[in-house]
Amino acid sequence: MGSILQTTLNTRALPTGDLRYVRSDYPGKLTDDEVHWLLQNDITTIVDLREAKEYDVRPCRLEKEEGFDYYHLPVTGFIAIGAERDGSRCRW
């Protein structure tokens, strides 16, 4: 399966029958034409799930592009519910 954007390796629509939800690898080298295509197709809410360290090194162009709502919500650094970082159990 190919990417719907030429400058990314893995951008694809989730199987909803439309472009309501699109997932992608890092869109760091988007062309102006690709940005325009995203806007034309109403793909304007960006949720960046990368950890802060990766975000700091490679920010996303769409964060500052007019017409996009950008949210950075890192989901890495998982610890099990009820566990402390040192591995001990939480007492509720």
What are the defining features of this structure?
92 residues; globular
Q: Would you kindly provide a written description of the structure presented here, covering whatever features stand out?
A:
16% of the residues lie in helices and 13% in strands. Strand 1 and strand 2 form a beta hairpin. The protein has 92 residues and is α+β, with helices and mostly antiparallel strands. The model has no long low-confidence stretch (mean pLDDT 85). It has a two-stranded antiparallel ribbon with strand order 1-2. A two-stranded parallel ribbon has the order 3-4. It has one domain. The chain starts with 11 loop residues before the first strand and ends in a 20-residue tail after the last strand. It is built from two helices and four strands, in the order ββαβαβ.
The number of distinct helices, counting runs of at least 4 residues, comes to 2
Mean pLDDT: 85
When the domains are counted, the total is 1
What oligomeric assembly is this protein in?
single chain
Strand content: 5-15%
N-to-C SSE series? EEHEHE
Shape: globular
Largest sheet: 2 strands, antiparallel
Class by SSE composition:
alpha+beta
Record the strand order, biggest sheet.
1-2
What integer value in Å does the Rg equal? Answer: 17 Å
* Euclidean distance between termini CA atoms: 47 Å
Pick out the low-confidence regions.
Answer: none
Number of strands: 4
Helix content: 10-25%
